[in-house]
TrEMBL record, chain A:
Species name: Pseudidiomarina fusca
HAMAP family recorded: RsxG_RnfG
Subcellular location(s) per record: Cell inner membrane
Enzyme class of the recorded protein, top EC level: translocase
Family in the record: Belongs to the RnfG family.
UniProt keywords, alphabetically: Cell inner membrane, Cell membrane, Electron transport, Flavoprotein, FMN, Membrane, Phosphoprotein, Translocase, Transmembrane, Transmembrane helix, Transport
One of the Pfam families matching this protein, by short name: FMN_bind
InterPro entries: FMN-bd, Ion_transpt_RnfG/RsxG
Residue numbers of FMN phosphoryl threonine PTMs: T175
Signal peptide (UniProt feature, chain positions): none
Cofactor needs: FMN
EC number: 7.-.-.-
Name the record gives this protein: Ion-translocating oxidoreductase complex subunit G
Residue ranges annotated for the FMN-binding domain, each copy included: 100-192
From TrEMBL, chain B:
Name used for this protein in its record: Ion-translocating oxidoreductase complex subunit E
Pfam family membership, one: Rnf-Nqr
Enzyme class: translocase
Cross-referenced InterPro entries: NqrDE/RnfAE, RnfE
GO biological process: electron transport chain
Entry GO terms, CC: endomembrane system; plasma membrane
PANTHER family: ELECTRON TRANSPORT COMPLEX PROTEIN RNFE, ION-TRANSLOCATING OXIDOREDUCTASE COMPLEX SUBUNIT E
Membrane topology: Multi-pass membrane protein
Gene: rnfE
Keyword Cell inner membrane (UniProt): yes
Reported function: Part of a membrane-bound complex that couples electron transfer with translocation of ions across the membrane.
Amino acid sequence: MIGKSMRHNGMVLALFAIVATLLIVATAQFTEEPIKRQQEQELLQVLNQLIPPELHDNDLYQSCSLVDHAELGPGSHRIYRASLNQQATALAVEVTAPNGYSGAIELLVAFTVAGEVSGVRTLRHQETPGLGDKIEIRKDDWITSFNGLTVQGADDNRWAVTRDGGMFDQFTGATITPRAVVQAVKRANLLFQQQQQQWFAAPNNCAGVSS
Amino acid sequence: MNAYKELTLQGLWTNNPALVQLLGLCPLLAVTSTVTNALGLGLATLLVLVGSNVTVSLVRDWVPKEIRIPVFVMVIATFVTVMQLLMNAYVYGLYQSLGIFIPLIVTNCAIIGRAEAYASKNPWQKSAFDGLMMGLGFTLVLVLLGAIREIIGNGTLFDGADLLLGAWASELRIELVQFDYPLLLAILPPGAFIVMGFIIAGKNWFDQRQAERAKTPEKQVTRARVTAQ
């Protein structure tokens, strides 16, 4: 008696599980393309903001390579190379600032071949809304204060927030966030000046794979 | 028709999931920092609620009593996952700003509460309507909370509405007040608790006044009888 009802209940549950799984698989397949396109588009949009169209004629999204450097933060980081008439012109690199106020801040930083910062954008962060989130371009234009600057060697102490004697403003009520971002961009710029040749020559190996 | 009227009143006011049942407070308090986020999560919850209510109602005669809860949870989880994938594909910006709170709709007790309390005992048309009204009641409270917090905290309304509704909606953004220092408390979770408290207090005050008003004429009648004797 009990065995029969258990078997029946088990069958009903299994049936529901199968139908539910099928439904989800169908939706996942249906939405796979649009989701990939959305992520691609978002990244492309950011890339195009950082590397202006007149600086490149290649497909930035396809010219992607993975690099490993402790200066960029833990794990592998993507670099996107821009070229004009086969000539390398600029490069964007993902940088992790591990010391944000609440966790790591993911940045995308672009440099021109001359070593100048051509732009910085925040990709992901969990900083305090209203204080630390001014590193987002849609909240504040602070992040553009890096544009056109170059680090002159590791002891360049202009690359710090004003409170630490540098040239970048901190925010009212938030020093840790901008400090983390400034340090991360500085490290990335120094590394770029050193690694530029290798990075432009590195093979494309991560196109179409989204993070 | 009367039953539907009753359901409307229950969902929107007397048994409002957020204000009276106090269910689903986790997403309610967490995402209501702007009207856009509130509206997005509210609509997602509403759709899941209608979908799960209809499904639960349709299968209610086949599901043995002992396993109804796991089945309900599975139905709800399926709807939420489907919703999450669809939002990821078609309203990407909003998907990013709602983040973890979309999958957390599964744990919104308002949904399983309606499945168990209403949909498992009623025909699907009524269950769908119940889901719609409960979802609407939930969404309205979310939007109200989001509006109050956004005005106090940011001085704006409909900031980022284009994430939900498309590019045209960026014109909806209204700058009401320009703050030098935004009131951070209103945007952070404690602000949500405080504002929510005031909304509930306001509703209770209103209900109490209505009840007192309804009572007053009755009293007069009794008194009249007393003097007559």
